[in-house]
Design a protein that fits this description.
Layout (H helix, E strand, L loop, with lengths): L2 H24 L6 H45 L1 H20 L2
Amino acid sequence: MSQVSTKTLIEDLRSLVADAEALVAATAGDASDRASAARRRAAGSVESARARLVELEDDLKKRAQAVKDDATHYVQDNPWQSIGIAAAVGVVVGVLLGRR
């Protein structure tokens, strides 16, 4: 999953959790059995979603750290190749920006 879509997913999940919490709070005054049962299910779902969101964020942080570490080791092991790759990327970006 790309970084942008992952961030968007996390933001959307946070928004969903906040909306569900607001809905549970707004219906707190309804004392009917159906409303109480729905509130309990919604509260359970919110807690479950919150826990999964925390796990997702932790997993993404670990993956990002692993990628960073791999890139650091590659650059340290292959400094001249890294300089060549950076120069090539700079030329490509320069050409693309120069066309505008």
